[in-house]
Write the structure tokens for this entry.
Amino acid sequence: MAFNIVSGSFVSFAVYSEVAARDQRFFEANEGITSTEVNTLLEQASDRILSKLKATDWWQNYQFERDQSLAGDTRQLPDVDPLRIDGREQDFKDLNVYFVMAEYLLPRVADWANEADTVKINFYKDQFNNLFKELIED
């Protein structure tokens, strides 16, 4: 259940098969979306998640408590190292899937006049936001 790591370097929290398993009907209805495209989007989404984590008060307070030499300067905060995430791997995979569905895949094919499409996008956004909040407050 490890993250997507290639040659020792972190690529993403999840891979295509995990997105497809979450919403198989989406891929059946949108056959033109390839696994390569999805994996690229998962990589972008993972980078965005790591940036969002770094910007949280939780990360900043944690780092300031650990390293007094930072002197409260957010510019000196280290990046979140995904290879040091210990535990809750499935939650980070889920975050990755929710983010890629809400921010990249569903908007790409949405019929904005169809309320069902916007409901589905909002569902994934809510799932992401709730889990993200749980992770940083836990």
The CA atoms of residues 19 and 97 lie 6 Å apart. The beta strands are 4-6, 9-12.
